[in-house]
Write a structure and sequence with these properties.
Structural class: alpha/beta
CATH superfamily of the largest domain: Glycogen Phosphorylase B
Helix content: 40-55%
Shape: globular
Strand content: 15-25%
Largest sheet: 7 strands, parallel
Distance between the termini: 20 Å
Oligomer: single chain
Number of domains: 2
């Protein structure tokens, strides 16, 4: 046990969605008893909505919204994108210089948004050799061809080789092998450690019962939970579900409830349209629910997009689920859905070939009998916290291996 708590700085570039900040929080919670003081650099406007335990705090950098894979605009303040990026870059660097972390964990983007973390990574390498820089990557980034092209054009392979001590893959190599798919050179592959997936909090039966009671769900009623995650691009998926269960197609089975959590980033126009439609059918509609774990626990079936965070939340509770993935601007969710489905963990439908009757049938099948999926999910590779703590321990002792 170290004489003083470790200092861990986690950087999450994304500002549009909930997955990155939830993943960073889950990792921070698992490490705070190391013991450690943990700062999370984030552009998320929703950081204040989460319960933050002792030992963890945030440094909020100005938010930016992705318009395309290459174009970002300020989330709120009326400045030029270059001005906001300059502020973000300076805040990241100043935080690292002042905090002097023992570990700097970068989430997903090796150089940060528009290379904003590169100066900080270089400063740590040149001036704080005691700091271990770690890149954390989700299981699947995008299609192999797109990822290789992007990493080659942006110098990502060089950054992983020169600026990082370790690379953590938050997934299972047996399910998806990014070393092979993304043509990782041997020198970089030697730094890679597969952690398994990141588990999420599992609520108690009392918490689940309280949630069902709060939503007025009777003991003999089933619940279908529908959520696209952050909701910025989830409207088509929600409409797809609603069309599949339109009254003209038979609606929802008796003694079945529907709760739709749209995500906080859905547009006001789309949200109001969904609320009006759901009110007609007596579905419950929310933008955001702070206790999503308990709401997932209260459901018999979950319908979601294929985001990494949402999948981990659902699988942690062994809930039968169906994925309706997005396919643009990245194919990550589609690939994840196909991989998990082919291994028996869930079902999915390809939105590029929509069939309302097939979608309806798949969800009803899960609602009536999801036993095989629940049994299979008992084997889901949730080892990340143990592996991450082990890596931190080894690096703390200077035993990189």
């Amino acid at each position: 046990m170290p004489a003083h708590p470790l200092k861990i700085l986690i950087y999450s570039h994304d500002t549009f969605g909930l997955g990155h900040i939830r993943r960073c929080l889950a990792i921070a919670r698992s490490l705070r008893h190391s013991p450690a003081n943990i700062l999370i650099l984030s552009g998320s406007p929703l950081v204040g909505r989460f319960k933050i335990p002792t030992g963890i705090d945030f440094v909020r950098i100005p938010g930016m919204i992705k318009v395309t894979n290459e174009r970002y605009l300020p989330l709120s303040i009326k400045l030029e994108p270059s001005e906001v990026l300059s502020i973000r870059k300076n805040v990241i660097l100043a935080t690292a210089m002042t905090f002097k972390p023992d570990f700097f964990i970068v989430d997903k983007a090796p150089l940060g948004l528009k290379r904003e973390a590169m100066e900080t990574l270089c400063w740590l390498k040149d001036h704080l050799s005691s700091c271990t820089s770690i890149l954390g990557l989700r299981d699947i980034m995008d299609s192999a061809a797109s990822t290789v092209d992007e990493w080659r054009s942006k110098g990502i392979y060089e950054a992983m080789d020169e600026l990082y001590d370790e690379i953590w893959i938050y997934g299972s190599r047996e399910l998806y092998d990014p070393i092979r798919e993304y043509r990782i050179p041997p020198d970089i592959a030697s730094k890679m450690h597969f952690t398994g997936y990141i588990p999420r909090k599992v609520p108690s039966p009392e918490q689940i019962g309280s949630t069902r009671a709060n939503f007025g769900i009777e003991d003999d009623e089933k619940l279908i939970l529908v959520t696209p995650g952050g909701g910025g691009d989830g409207h088509p998926m929600l409409r797809y579900f609603l069309e599949a269960f339109a009254p003209s197609r038979g609606g929802i089975p008796g003694r079945t409830r529907v709760v739709i959590v749209t995500g906080p980033f859905i547009s006001e126009k789309n949200y109001q349209e969904l609320v009006a439609l759901c009110n007609e059918r007596r579905y419950t509609t929310l933008r955001f629910h702070r206790g999503m774990e308990s709401l997932i626990g209260a459901a018999q079936v979950v319908v979601s997009m294929g985001g990494y965070n949402t999948i981990c939340e659902i699988a942690s509770q062994k809930k039968p689920f169906l994925i309706i993935p997005r396919t643009v601007p990245r194919e990550e969710q589609l690939i994840r859905a196909a991989v998990l489905s082919s291994n028996g963990f869930c079902d999915y439908i390809d939105p590029r070939r929509p069939d309302l009757q097939i979608l309806r049938g798949k969800i009803l099948k899960l609602l009536d009998n999801g036993v095989s999926y629940r049994e299979k999910m008992a084997t889901f590779p949730f080892m990340a916290f143990d592996v991450i703590r082990e890596r931190i321990l080894q690096n703390r002792k200077g035993n990189r291996s």
